[in-house]
Amino acid sequence: MYTVILQAIGLATAAWIAYLSQPGSSLFSWHPTLMSFAFLVAMPNGIFALSRNHPLYASAKLSSKVTIHLLSQLVAVSSALIALATIITNKDNNKADHFTTRHGLIGLITCIAMVGATSGGVLANNAQLVKAFIKPAAMKSIHAFAAGCAVYPLAMTTIVLATYSNFLVSALPIAYMRYTIAGVATIMAVAVYVQVSQRGARKTVRAD
């Protein structure tokens, strides 16, 4: 049940950021809108879809859960890359330097790592193609660890750093409102880490 609550909080936070951004009002407005959707809505949905206890997916077949996971991650990657393209283009248009802040640098690293983890997920879903080089179970474990324990915490770190950006400082001059977004990002990162770790532990127990 807690996964549904977390997803609702993530959706509400993404909607709040979209409201502040007013998507379509400028090129930049799509950056926070799409990034928050990618990492607070689409990616968590893909990760939590594989949970055994998720009320919406508990009765679904494993193949259906994997399909939901894959589609959600592809939507997340697409949204994040479009958001990255918009901020690069916006900075070019304004003759501004790229990736000069911690938020920008960690965000770039996150996007690169996300593409890598998603590519690993596609291979994990077609593990028979690479079984000569790596065991399918190992490939799936590496993908889960990379996405849940590395990429997602990086994404949430990017969102926390975004609360110090000119955009959010201007849109939310009251500090505690920005801290709320940072708190949501921190809770989401911990929840995903726990989810992935528990899934890995169950697989280890079954293997033993």
Percentage beta strand: under 5%
Computed Rg: 18 Å
End-to-end gap: 29 Å
Per CATH, the class reads: Mainly Alpha
Order of helices and strands: HHHHHHH
Low-confidence stretches: none
Number of strands: 0
What CATH architecture do you see? Up-down Bundle
Main traits of this protein?
77% helix, mainly alpha, Four Helix Bundle (Hemerythrin (Met), subunit A), 208 residues, single chain
Detailed description of the structure:
Helix 5 (about 135-160) packs antiparallel against helix 7 (about 175-205). The mean pLDDT is about 90. It is globular and about 50 Å long. By secondary structure, the chain is mainly α. It is about 75% helix and about 0% strand. It has one domain (about 1-205): Four Helix Bundle (Hemerythrin (Met), subunit A), CATH 1.20.120.1770.
Briefly say what this structure is.
This protein has 208 residues and is an all-alpha fold. It has helices spanning 2-21, 30-48, 62-93, 102-125, 136-162, 166-171, 175-207.
SSE topology sketch:
Blueprint: H1 2-21, H2 30-48, H3 62-93, H4 102-125, H5 136-162, H6 166-171, H7 175-207
